[in-house]
Specification:
Number of domains: 1
Helix content: over 70%
Mean pLDDT: 91
Number of helices: 11
Distance between the termini: 27 Å
Low-confidence stretches: none
Number of strands: 0
Structural class: mainly alpha
Order of helices and strands: HHHHHHHHHHH
Length: 265
């Protein structure tokens, strides 16, 4: 890759991974707009590592507390709210793991249709708008029940279809359940950690199997840029989401989907 492609794709991945606007739709759009060649598996791994590092670092205090309380509960101590939240993240991850293993071939082939991506980008934007308008926004992430976690997890599995947006669909589900916008975003971000870790792991296995030459400097720069972009994105989003709501992201998604559809036909 040349430097322009490297910078654009790393920033696109970092900025869109955690916003409810579909990172896959943007990564489909960028080559159309700039004529980029395929970036390759190694770069996909690098930007996933950057995004994972950003969300893990941002929530590092909460993660340490959650893991410590989960271990304490496993050793016989009473459950704490943080321990229950950790188990809820694990529980909500199971559906996407099962669906990903069963549908891996389709995700990499049949689900890559540009028209399908445009449709999911627009369709799930409308659903996000409905959830944001109709949601009661009274609960926090610690109030989630096992049924709630399963519902969010099943909705996250839908995000295997590109254009859906993993963060968008999980926030939509959480808003439907009455969570505040910030709580919906926080649970979505925590839920992204095992999901990105496993999806990045699968891509890494594909990379190892492909025996592809690796440009290590490109990967390092891509990782750092994705990390910085994702960290800034998470911090700003959590700071403003209660005030601005989901409407700006809904409008943006509809325009993005329309542009992708226009380029496809």
């Amino acid at each position: 890759m040349d430097w322009f492609q490297l910078i654009v794709l790393a920033l696109v991945q970092g900025l869109t991974e955690f916003l409810p606007i579909s990172s896959s739709a943007h990564l489909i759009l960028a080559p159309h707009l700039f004529g980029f060649p395929d970036q390759g598996l190694a770069f996909d791994v690098a930007v996933h590592v950057g995004s994972l590092g950003a969300v893990t670092w941002y929530f590092r205090t909460e993660i340490v507390r959650i893991l410590a309380d989960m271990l304490a509960q496993a050793s016989g101590k009473p459950a704490t709210p943080d321990a229950r939240l950790g188990w809820m993240v694990a529980w909500a991850t199971i559906p996407v793991v099962i669906a990903g293993l069963l549908l891996k071939g389709q995700v990499e082939t049949d689900f890559r249709s540009t028209v399908l991506i445009a449709g999911t980008t627009i369709g799930f934007a409308v659903l996000l708008a409905w959830a944001d308008l109709r949601g009661k926004r009274l609960r926090d992430e610690y109030s989630l029940s096992w049924r709630d976690g399963l519902f969010i997890g099943l909705m996250q599995a839908i995000a295997l279809v590109p254009g859906t947006s993993r963060s968008g669909i999980t926030m939509t589900a959480a808003l439907m359940l009455g969570l505040t916008r910030e709580a919906a975003a926080r649970f979505s971000f925590l839920l992204s950690i095992p999901t990105i870790l496993m999806s990045g792991g699968l891509v890494t296995l594909d990379l190892v199997a492909s025996d592809t030459p690796v440009a290590w400097l490109d990967l390092l720069i891509g990782t750092v840029l994705a990390f910085v972009a994702a960290y800034v994105c998470i911090a700003l989003f959590l700071r403003v989401i209660e005030r601005v709501g989901m409407l700006p992201f809904v409008v943006y998604r509809i325009l993005l989907g329309a542009l992708i559809l226009y380029l496809a036909v």
